[in-house]
Amino acid sequence: MASRAVTNRLLGDRAGYGAVIVSIMVAYAISSTVEGATAHGLVLVVQLVTVWLTFTVSGSPHARRITGWAILACVLAAVVLGASNLEDVRLTIALQVLNVLLYLLAPFVIVRDLMRRNVVDTQTLYGSIAAFLLIGMMYAFVYAIVANVQTTPFFSEDAPVSISDLLYFSFVTLTTTGYGDLVPAGEPGRTLAVSETLIGQFFLVIAVAKVVSAWTRHPKDPQDGGAQ
């Protein structure tokens, strides 16, 4: 895995999925604080870096190659839409669809890599957390598409919807925190929220919890060089 070796040299041997988590956090921060066309460009760049890191760390050259062509096609489509005299909302939706595609494929690649591992180590734990965070990011942009497409307000408060609100709502829903300050006004928002809650709980119970349990029973990371 030459690409994985290159990544380890650039980021450090123990970075791996930890670097993916940091990249996701940067994408969240930019998405929730920067507005306008600049935000779309910055978010897209960070997402491309996140996906590249995910595929490189997981050692999936075929998925990286196929997704690279898909990303190129989506970017070209977005450029064409931007060069056309189309409404800004249509360009925004196109970029949000690209966001969803990027964050939809990455968790599957991570889970596939984790299932192939023979040991449960720190990277397995980081990979599970990264996949969980990517699911939350993906749903936020799915909500954004719905909010831009439907004619009725997405939230019952009938207030303008920002990507910051949608990211907050997505992770509150994914973790079943449920503060109740933001509530979907109708369909398909309610159904999507229920599906995110179920997926989040299944992922926590089946994946993350089992990884944490196995890791705490065998906490020694093979990269540490074994018992001293």
Summarize the structure.
The chain is mostly helical and 228 residues long.
What average pLDDT do the residues reach?
Answer: 76
What do we call the CATH topology?
Helix Hairpins
- What's the architecture in CATH terms? Orthogonal Bundle
CATH class: Mainly Alpha
CA-atom Rg in angstroms: 19 Å
DSSP summary, beta strand count: 0
The helix-strand sequence is HHHHHHHH
Shape: globular
Query: Number of helical segments?
Result: 8
Tell me the fraction of residues in β-strands, as a range. Answer: under 5%
Taken together, the total number of domains comes to 1
Structural class: mainly alpha
Question: Could you list the spans in which at least 5 consecutive residues all have pLDDT below 50?
Answer: 5-14, 224-228
Helix content: over 70%
Q: How far from one another are the termini?
A: 29 Å
**Major sheet, described briefly?**
none
Task: Tell me about this structure.
With 228 residues, the protein is mainly α. The protein has a single domain, classed as Orthogonal Bundle (Helix Hairpins), CATH 1.10.287.70. 75% of the residues lie in helices and 0% in strands. It has eight helices and no strands. α3 packs antiparallel against α4 and α3 runs parallel beside α5. The longest helix is centred in the middle third of the chain and has 29 residues. The chain is globular and about 50 Å long.
